[in-house]
Structure prediction request, 459 residues.
Amino acid sequence: MKLPYAEPYRIKMVEPIGQSTPEEREQWIKEADYNLFNLSSSKVFIDLLTDSGTGAMSDKQWAALMRGDESYAGARSFEELKQTVYNITGYQYLLPTHQGRAAENVLFSAMVKEGDVIPGNSHFDTTKGHIEFRKAHAIDCTIDEAFDTELEHPFKGNIDLVKLEEVYKKYTKEKIPFCLVTITCNSSGGQPVSIENVKAVKELSDRYGIPLIFDSARFAENAYFIKKREKGQEHRSIKEICKEIFSYGIGMTMSSKKDGLVNIGGFIALNNEEIFRTASNFTIIYEGFITYGGMAGRDMAALAVGLDEATEFDYLESRITQIEYLGNLLIEWGIPIQRPIGGHAIFIDALKFLPNVPREEFPAQTLGIELYKEAGVRGVEIGTILADRDPETRENRYPKMELLRLAIPRRTYTNNHMYYVAVALKNIFERRNEITKGYNITWESPILRHFTVKLEAAK
Prediction:
């Protein structure tokens, strides 16, 4: 008999989590204005709101915390992190930040101005927010296959070269500071980008004089899918694949709370000295001195170890195998999800799951609320609420997909937890035709509204 898969680690410490009754959850979500972000974590049983900063660190990372050098300038921990980033990416200039959106803020302050356009593959919420805050425009050039959740395509994060070239032909080079490649592409369902596509985007962009920047929060997971799915890559190491991907760009932003395996932190890495110098000024203004940038030395030390661990195959195999376990259960029970199963999360197609809920009443948010009331599981809407209003017309933007994301924290939950989540969704799916009403917005902020929006049940 073939030996079954087993995780390449053992558990050293546990944290208790509390259960609750359906009646309690009904009251709590109402008090939270039906916004899952407003819930206290003590009122959540299994928290799949995000995989950002919610994972478990290794013994080596905890040991590194104790060795952190807290010097204001030129700390040893910074030098260790800088060397690790260089080894993985090949980028020689490093600017730490306190998290990923801070890295976007610093880099975009240096590179993006009013009237610019930033083409890419389904920019995520904070990315688009930082672009539109500067009165620039994000243009989605993701392949059309990404928006058919039932279609099996190995690289749904890929950029459509025809769409991209249309942007390059329509706007002058001076209006396009860079093309942004998100790896993996969160908004299309945690879907990877192939090396072949990155090379083609690089070649096309070079013809128009446009550099590539990578949004790299889940770059290691992207490399894993390249190794597993792309012909000719199966015998390469994760680190080798990462090094090649980054060689096609001039820099990257990073939310270290994902594939850095830490609870806080981010960075910008670059191979362009001029941009580094300009961005350094904004780092000092917004974050801190350029060798700590909003991070404690101990967190930089843990991040250096985490980046090394996250780019090892055994760790990635364990992580993706758990996500596939949950996804395959849902597929077996007929629950519509984005296929193939991507990295970091399961994305449920809310339009197919709740066909009777009007689009203007936010089906994905409705499904997220139902899942919380059913089982105390918290996910997050990746749909119309997150898509925000058009900054010019102020009308709701209705994205092509309306998804409920269940983001799996790294090295945190067991497969029993995944089975619990799957059964909860199965229970809701069996009564889906009874769910005909969603929610209406009673208050929203002018940008990035999904974090603080207030809702009420539709009448």
